[in-house]
Write a structure and sequence with these properties.
The chain is an alpha+beta fold. The chain is built from eleven helices and 13 strands. It folds into two domains: about 130 residues, 3-Layer(aba) Sandwich (Aminopeptidase); about 170 residues, Aminopeptidase, CATH 3.40.630. Strands 1, 2, 3, 4, 5, 6, 7, 8, 9, 10, 11, 12 and 13 form a 13-stranded mixed beta sheet that branches. β11, α9 and β12 form a beta-alpha-beta unit. It comes from Roseobacter ponti. Keywords: Transferase. This is GNAT family N-acetyltransferase. One of its GO terms (molecular function) is transferase activity.
Length: about 350
Amino acid sequence: MSGRVLSTRGADRTAWLDLLARLPPGQRDIHYHPDYMRIYELTYPSDEARLIVLETANGVMFQPVMVRPVPDTDYHDMSSVYGYGGPLCTGTPDAQDRADFAAFFQQHASDTGAVAEFCLLHPMLADAQKALCADGTEFDYRKEVVVADLRKPLSAIWAAIDERQRKAALAARKAGVRVVMSDLSDGDLDAYHHRYLATMQTVGARAFWHFPENYFHNCRDALGAEHVSLFHAEAGGQIIASVFHIHMYDTVYYHFSCSDPDARKLNGTTLLLLDSLIWAHAQGFSWFHMGGGRTDEDDPLYRFKVAFSGQTLPLFSTRRILDRSAYDALTHAVKEQEIRKTGAPRQTDFFPRYRLQT
C-alpha cells in the first residue's frame, strides 16, 4: 500500500494523466483532468488542486480536490472543482482498500488543516462513487441534470426535442439568425465575458457566478483551444446570444451562456443549443451534458434545458466533517456574527456552515 498527493504541474501532472488513462473509458472525464483543475488555480490563486492517491494490491483509488483557505483563519477545507468530483478507482478495491484510502485522505486533511469536505458526485458515475466514499459521508440529493445521448441517430435527437423548441429554432433560422464559431481570440473572450457578466446581473446571480476577467482565457489556455468552443448567435450583424462549451473524452459540457434580453424573441439561445447538439453529434461525442437549473424542476432554466432531451440524471452531493472541534468553532463564530447582525442565527442546511455569508 502506497499513498501520494499529486499537483497539476510537472511530473505530477504526468503521473495524474497516467492514472486517468487506467480508468475504463466511460469513467474518464474532463472534471478529473489536471488541466481542468488548473483553470481554478489560475483563476483563484489561493486555491490549490491536489489528487489524493492510494495504490493497493487490488488497484488504485484516487480523488481530486480543491484545497481552499478559510478566510481569516489558518484552516482550509476541501471541495470538488466546479462541476463534479468524487473518488475514482482502477481495479476492484475491497472494503479494506476503501478504509485505507479513507484513512490516508483523513491524514492528509489533518496535515493540511482541512476542516470539512464538500463534493458534487458525477451524475453518470454517482452509484459507483457512493460505494467508494468514506464511512460517515452524508449524501444529499440536489436536483436533476439534463443530458442528451449523442450515440443515437440525429433524427432521434431531433425527435426528443420539445415541439415548441423545434419551432422556435426554425423560426430563428427563418428570421435570419445564424450561428458562428468563435476563433477564441483574446478580444472575443473579453467581449463574451462582458456579455456574460451583464447576463448574471440581469438574472440576479450570486457573486459566485461573476467570474473574474481571466476565467474564460484560463479555460482556453489551460485546457487548450481544442477542448473549448464558443458559439455565437448573430442577427443583423449583432451577437444576440452565446454559449461556451468545454469538451474532452466522450462528453461536451454546456458550460456557460449569455444572451441579450432585448433580443429574446429571436430565439438565439434556442438555435445555439440545437446547433450545439448537431455539432457535438458530428464531432463524434457520445454525450451532451446540459446541467440543471438554478433551483428546482420549476426553474425556467431547467425547463428550457430539459426540453432539448427529456433525459435527466440525479445529482448528489457529499458532506463530511474532517475536524469536528475546528468545524464547530468556526461555525459558532459565524453564528455569533449573525446574532449580532440580525438577533438570531440563520436557519439553513448550507455546508460547510461557516462558509455561509452573513
